[in-house]
Design brief:
Blueprint lengths: L3 E7 L6 H13 L4 E6 L15 H12 L5 E3 L12 H11 L4 E7 H6 L5 H7 L2 E5 L8 H9 L7 E4 L8 H9 L10 H9 L24
Parallel strand pairs: 1-2, 1-4, 2-3, 4-5, 5-6
Helix pairs in contact: 3-5
Bound molecules: adenosine-5'-triphosphate (ATP) and magnesium ion (MG).
The site of adenosine-5'-triphosphate has 18 residues, from α1, β4, α4 and α7.
Length: about 220
């Protein structure tokens, strides 16, 4: 039987329990063998955003967050590609390298409702399914109209998956840090320590960390 892999793309700035629960629910519901977290390098629709930490830091936090789940892995495929991070390009590359793997892409419904999707119909052709997980504040019922609006021929591959509502976003977490509010239990403990020890998100100048920055990962206290 061919391997079945779920792909969870995002900026993960930072990764939080909403991402982890979404991925774990999708893994279980669709019997996926593993989940690959793919941090974006430059998301096309977020090029002018301030406060995006550099890719290496976000990738490191993803690795810290997923370390306890043997089915979870992180991939640098988009970070190592110099161009904009189009999911379609990622799938073309993955399909070339792993022609026999069945890929499912996982997003929150917000992403499908709001973000522009480059070559979505072509992307769907490369996927086994596109899993849209529910997210508080976004009406999954609107997906039906959205599919029509986008004129998708492969729209049937989009499956809505109801998950426990997690009203957490990376934006809210960054705001809470700036305002001195607790983020405990919103991110895994080790991610929380990593953020504080390295003073991430203290200011809006998120990209100040360079690739050579040395991180204080281990708790030596
Ligand atoms: P930001 O506020 O910076 O946009 P985010 O929390 O939306 O951050 P992203 O990195 O943009 O996180 O999201 C990656 C993927 O995870 C997207 O498909 C998004 O819809 C999904 N996602 C993020 N948070 C949740 C959540 N709480 N519940 C369900 N899906 C989520
Ligand atoms: Mg988002």
């Amino acid at each position: 039987m061919s391997e079945s892999v779920g792909l969870m793309g995002g900026t993960f700035n930072p990764i939080h329990i909403g991402h982890l629960i979404a991925a774990e629910e999708a893994r279980q519901e669709f019997c996926l063998d593993r989940i690959l977290f793919i941090p974006n390098r430059i998301p096309p629709h977020r090029q002018n955003e301030t406060g995006l930490l550099n890719g290496d830091t976000r990738y490191l936090m993803v690795n810290i967050a997923i370390s306890s789940n043997p089915a979870f892995r992180a991939s640098r495929i988009e970070l190592d590609r110099p161009s904009l991070s189009y999911t379609y390009d990622t799938l073309v590359e993955l399909k070339k390298t792993y022609p026999n793997v069945e890929f499912s892409f996982i997003t929150g419904v917000d992403s499908l409702l709001q973000s522009p999707w480059h070559k979505l119909d072509d992307l769907l052709k490369l996927l086994k399914r596109f899993i849209a997980v529910t997210r508080p504040g976004f009406d999954e019922g609107r997906l039906v109209g959205r599919k029509v609006e986008l004129g998708l021929s492969e729209g049937d591959k989009i499956k809505v998956l109801k998950i426990p509502g997690i009203d957490i976003s990376s934006t809210k977490i960054r705001e809470r840090i700036r305002n001195g509010k607790s983020i405990k239990y919103m991110v895994p403990d080790a991610v929380e320590s990593f953020i504080y020890k390295n003073h991430l998100y203290d200011s809006d100048n998120g990209s100040r960390m360079t690739e050579n920055t040395e991180f204080l990962i281990l708790d030596s206290s």
